[in-house]
Every structure is written in structure tokens, then in C-alpha cells.
Amino acid sequence: MKKVIIASTSTVFGGTYLDYLLPTLAEHFATVSNLIFIPFARPGGITHEEYTEKIKPVFQQLNINVKGIHEFENPIEAITNAEAIFTGGGNTFVLVDMLYKYNLLDAIQHAVENGVPYLGTSAGSNICGLTMGTTNDMPIVYPPSFRTLGLVSFNLNPHYLDPIEGLEHMGETRETRIKEFHHYNPQSVLGLREGSWLEVVDSKITLKGNLSARLFQQGKAPVELETGSDLSDLR
Amino acid sequence: MKKVIIASTSTVFGGTYLDYLLPTLAEHFATVSNLIFIPFARPGGITHEEYTEKIKPVFQQLNINVKGIHEFENPIEAITNAEAIFTGGGNTFVLVDMLYKYNLLDAIQHAVENGVPYLGTSAGSNICGLTMGTTNDMPIVYPPSFRTLGLVSFNLNPHYLDPIEGLEHMGETRETRIKEFHHYNPQSVLGLREGSWLEVVDSKITLKGNLSARLFQQGKAPVELETGSDLSDLR
């Protein structure tokens, strides 16, 4: 049974790392004792070791042992034998570049399709879409492709940000950027606000959390989707 | 004589298109009757024709005739014979992809080195740096490379944005993103606030406009540079 959680962010304002998701994760990883963490996105440039150490205490609360993918001699084999996978946030370009470098995209995709529960936050959620083409990150490295896992049949925009009232900055709003995306790409884009996540159980996709999400489709006006919405048929 | 203006934005808050730069452009393009516009960045997805029509009235005020690069049968030849070049803002990925598609990067670089005055705004300024790796834009298409014109020996971050006081959004600040860039890239990055521009005359690079700019260098704390600063030796 495919089990995926695609979260907009690891941390909501005023909260601690993953605290708002902890009850959900207890259920999501109920049968899991060992989890493989993918620290490749390196938020703020921290090392793989530092990042892995940072997340360990969170999973200790769930009695789950964490090992970083960088600790394995054969990362593909590690993913193939994984009980659970968590890809953390940071820079999506760096993350995707590393996943290609270690040839891990197909391995993760197969593992998840075979029922290994997956958690993604931020950059780790971006890669659940068809491409990383709707990331907010800076292109600090050049990955071999923008194609990602395709665990859902659309694209994600984590940390979705509404236009800020009164801001005198002339850079594009998030909505303008996604509109530009649709001049070149057909797939829907889901803007996930911080505190929202998608729950994927087999072919069923549900919007969770307290907030609505913003759906962008080519040639259509954007719409707000209430929490609890069924997104299984979204393409 | 190399003559380049690298502007953070085409439009400052409350202003009209290029109005704040008009006296500067009158001087920069003093001997120019015909200008080639590169509309490839397509802000908001507008067509090359629409974008070119939009900028014509501005240059009419300077008695300069504008033709879009898309109107030429041989774009490389057009650039080689150009009197002046202006690359407008929009999406940097789309712009760079098109410049590679038409094999124009070297042609523009040679023209500018040979004295053809160049103006860039926003995405058109990003490409003046060594790479487009510090753009703020969304990666809506996959260009063949991130290498750009290298008219200056560092990278640009146009529309530089200071952290917004009181914002509860957890996405990375611009400063964090540029710090992450320096984990993978050695070159300096100049954060150009809206209303600032660089003036390049031969090997002399000067910060212009009313605002300071923020300089990021690998392994150093960022510093503020006052307007009028000489950046000729920046690498």
C-alpha cells in the first residue's frame, strides 16, 4: 500500500521541527523501527551529518532509529531495503542533483510504489511532483534534469505564499510565477501553504491541515481548495 | 569602449517603465538611432510582439527606433550589426534557454566587448553575471546551461530583498539563499536593490542610484556598499 506524506514545511511559525505533524507521523510510521533520512538538500548549507543529527531526536519520540543515506556504502540497496524514507527540506536543485548523482530517483519511486512509507517536507515535497519546475529555490547547482519522482501526477509549490499586502517590492508574486510556468508546462500546480500537507494512500490523495490550498491549472483561474479535498484525480 | 548598464528592475514602486533611468539612458544611448530588444524573458508570459510594443514608447522619447530580435531572420547577424542592445526582464530560465537555442550568448558578449552599448533590467541583468545561479526566478524551463554573459566577473541578484520584518513565512530569506550558493560557487554576488544599477565603462564598474547594495562573498560576512562604490576589482 502506497503511503506518502507531502508537507509544505518542516516547521510552522512559532513551532519546533515537525511538531505539528507528530501525531500524523506516529500513525504514518506506526510499524516502522528504522528510517532512512535523505539530507541532500542541506538547508543553509549544513553538512549531511549535521542535518541527520538534527532530525534524530524528533524520530526518537516515535521510537524510530534514523540513519542518513550518506552513511550507506550502497545507497540504492539501502533504499531498496528501507522500512521508511524521509527527505528533508533545503535547496531543491542541490537535492535533485544528488539524487541523480547517486541514481536514486527510480529506487525511491519503486520503494514507495511497493509500500515503503515516505515523508517529504519542502524540497523533499517538491520532488514528489512530476518536475521540480515550481520550486522556490535558487538554482545554485545545475542538475542533469528537472524531472522528479512523480509520486503524484501534478507539481507542488511548497511554502505557498499569498501576495503580501502593501509590499513595495516589484519582484513577481508566487501566483505570477506559477502562471508563467503554465505557458510552458501543462500539469496542475498545487500551492501548499505552511501547515498543510497531502496524504497519499494508494491512489487516494487528500489535503490535510487547517488551511486551504491554492490550485493552479493551465488556462483556468486559480481556485481555493478546502482542507479535506480529494485530489486523487488531479493531473 | 565597453558600455553596460545593469539595472535591478525596469520599474520602481510608484513609477512607470524605465522612468527613473531615462536621464541615464539618454546619455548611455546618446549616439544610438536603432536598438535591438531581446524580449525572450516574457514577463507574465506575454508574447515577444507584445513585449516589444510595450517598450517602444519609452525609447521613442529618446528618438530611438526599437526592433525585437525575434523579427530578424538571422538573429546572430542582427546582434553582430547592432547599434545597441536591451534585454528586458521576466523569467531568467526562459531567457537563457532561448539565448542558447539561438546561440546568441557569444554574439552578445562579443558585441558588448566591441563597444555596443547594452542595457539589462532584472533577468536581462542576471545574465550579465558569470552564471544565472543567483536568479530569483522559478525554473519553468530547463536551459542547456546556467552559464551566462560574464560581462562582469561576479554574479548578480537583482530585486534584492531585505528580510521582511514580522513576516511569519518560513521560506528562506534572500540572504540565506545566497549563503547556500556560496557552498557551491566561489564568485561574489551583488544584491542590487530596486532603483540601483551598475554602470560599466570599459573595465570600470560603479554602483549607481540612491541605494546601497549588499555584497556577498564566500566565507565572509555580507557588507553594504554605498552608491558610487567602485566594483571594478570584484571577483
From TrEMBL, chains A, B:
<dbReference type="Pfam" id="PF03575">
    <property type="entry name" value="Peptidase_S51"/>
</dbReference>
<dbReference type="GO" id="GO:0016805">
    <property type="term" value="F:dipeptidase activity"/>
</dbReference>
<dbReference type="InterPro" id="IPR005320">
    <property type="entry name" value="Peptidase_S51"/>
</dbReference>
<keyword id="KW-0645">Protease</keyword>
<protein>
    <submittedName>
        <fullName>Dipeptidase PepE</fullName>
        <ecNumber>3.4.13.21</ecNumber>
    </submittedName>
</protein>
<keyword id="KW-0720">Serine protease</keyword>
<keyword id="KW-0224">Dipeptidase</keyword>
<dbReference type="InterPro" id="IPR029062">
    <property type="entry name" value="Class_I_gatase-like"/>
</dbReference>
<comment type="similarity">
    <text>Belongs to the peptidase S51 family.</text>
</comment>
<keyword id="KW-0378">Hydrolase</keyword>
